[in-house]
Amino acid sequence: MTNPRRAGWVALALTMVAGFEGLRQAAYLDPVGIPTICFGETKGVRLGQRATPAQCEAMLADSLAIANRAVDACIRAPLGDYRRAALVSFAYNVGQANLCSSTLARKMNAGDTVGACNELPRWNRAKGIVLPGLTRRRATEQAMCLGALP
């Protein structure tokens, strides 16, 4: 049986990541030239590849589980559903190594929740290029992390 507490952050993270990434069933080059498919999947993707909505949903579920494990590995502070969903979305996008080595993780683990959440907007670049979509995503993650969103 699914833990109801876990179900809350999963639904939030699914909605947030799917909304920001969007569904693209045919592989494409993202804004910095990385082959991408479905809801922002990049691992093993090659141009010309196609996926069904069901395949994309399965990839997203698997990748969110990986991102959640990254949050568990990097963050020792207790996390409510909204804060966990924000950090899972962040980890999904930047990866475990970047999360674990970030000032965000250091501050969160030191008990500086506000300082940690306020680190999110700094992660709005890909290959040094500020991306408006990442800027919007980080603002939403920051608001959820700070508890400013319901």
TrEMBL record:
Keywords: Antimicrobial, Bacteriolytic enzyme, Glycosidase, Hydrolase
Keyword field contains Oxidoreductase: no
Catalytic activity: Hydrolysis of (1->4)-beta-linkages between N-acetylmuramic acid and N-acetyl-D-glucosamine residues in a peptidoglycan and between N-acetyl-D-glucosamine residues in chitodextrins
CDD domains the record matches: endolysin_R21-like
Transmembrane stretches, start-end: none
Superkingdom in the source lineage: Bacteria
Enzyme class (EC, first level): hydrolase
Entry keyword Phosphoprotein: no
Its EC number(s): 3.2.1.17
Name of the molecule in the record: Lysozyme
Pfam families noted in UniProt: Phage_lysozyme (PF00959)
HAMAP family linked: ENDOLYSIN_T4, SAR_ENDOLYSIN
GO molecular function per UniProt: hydrolase activity
